[in-house]
Amino acid sequence: MTAKTLESLLSEGVQGRAVLVRSDLNVPLADGAVTDDGRIRASLPVLEKLARSGARVLVTAHLGRPKGEPVPEFSLSPVAARMQELSSAPVKRAEDLTGESARSAVAELAEGEILLLENVRFDPRETSKDAAERGALAQELAALTGQSGAYVNDAFGAVHRAHASVADIASQLPAYQGDLVASELQVLKRLTESAERPYTVVLGGSKVSDKLAVIENLLPKADALLIGGGMVFTFLKAQGYGIGGSLVENDELETVKGFLEQAQQKDCRIVLPTDVVMAASFAANAEHEILPVDSLETGAHGADALGLDIGPASAEAFAAEVAASRTVFWNGPMGVFEMEAFSKGTAALAEALTQSEAFTVVGGGDSAAAVRALGFDESGFGHISTGGGASLEYLEGKTLPGIQALGA
Ligand code: 3PG
Ligand code: MG
């Protein structure tokens, strides 16, 4: 069975119908304002398409990880404000999810208008392990649409979550796949089924444990796996190097040794940095120096130093790997890119991707935000995914509950 497309919903006709769309509007905020609106811009086309066709568009989304109760810092209100600035259709906002405010806003919502409901994770049933609880919330959400409602899942970044608004709701209303989900899946399918070689995967970010399954799954598929970011120190320690006070997951040392061995058998090169930026402390203005990986503890701060970025020789080597590739998938920053002094590895890699003629995919909210924060033009990349965990789980070969629920 394949999922019904947004096109098929539009051809049925949506004039006057209330259509509930699940979007991923989980964006970074600072001081109550959106600092990277990538996911909002990626979500608007489907909402505007429905609005233009005369639907009354209800949007449900999450922000952050509130623990099942309303907390002002996770309100979607700043997101609604940014949507209003960007949207061609009027954007209204409800102060709750399915309560008084939402019901009266739905009643007043005109054709062609968009209504953003408050953070769906303010309700504990959204993420409940109990299917009956999730089902009850899904029913309440569906009831908001009244007669002839429909549901569209366009929240690619959240399709790996078995949550009420992502999965359960698809059995309460006629359900359709949004265009963003469709295009993201198309890209990932190309990576898993028909990646042109050489195929290079670049992984960064802080935790190896988050990436274990994806490394395992990609070793037989990729030609080279470049490792940067905080997770690199677990690899370096597994090889017997001193790493000072850098981030390490001692529980994963054996697994990582296993990967290094497997890589040889699977004909996939695991490429690690040869130099690292070692800092006195985790601070934007920390003293720092570049050291080769076999001498990370020999600098000014000895064994107390922290590795916060890959060094320039490594960045150059990674860039050369990218330049020689036909397909590149990148997930996770190479260093603490939020701090200027430790952003150079990530910037050099992003630059290499934009220079490359390969099909390049940037996966993950953090990497996508990094690319934009460092001032790169999005058009320099083949595809910037709105999904971090979701794209990794797809590449791991896992079933994604939000996709499965649509019958795809
Ligand atoms: C994300 O930011 O990766 C998605 O919005 C999913 O959020 P979650 O990891 O809190 O489920
Ligand atoms: Mg996340």
Q: Which structural class fits the helix and strand makeup?
A: alpha/beta
Total number of strands: 17
Name the hetero compounds present.
Answer: 3-phosphoglyceric acid, magnesium ion
Q: Tell me the fraction of residues in β-strands, as a range.
A: 15-25%
Largest sheet data: 6 strands, parallel
Q: Flag low-confidence runs.
A: none
Distance between the termini: 6 Å
* Rounded mean pLDDT score: 95
Oligomer: single chain
Helix % is 25-40%
Radius of gyration: 23 Å
Number of helices: 14
Folded structure, characterized:
This protein is α/β, with parallel strands linked by helices and 408 residues long. The chain contains 14 helices and 17 strands. Strands 5-6-4-1-7-8 form a six-stranded parallel sheet, with helices on both faces. A hairpin with a 2-residue loop joins strand 2 and strand 3 (33-34). The longest helix is centred in the middle third of the chain and has 16 residues, at 179-194. The radius of gyration is 23 Å and the shape is elongated. The termini are close together. 3-phosphoglyceric acid binds next to loops. 3-phosphoglyceric acid is lined by residues 24, 26, 65, 157-158, 161, 365, 388-389.
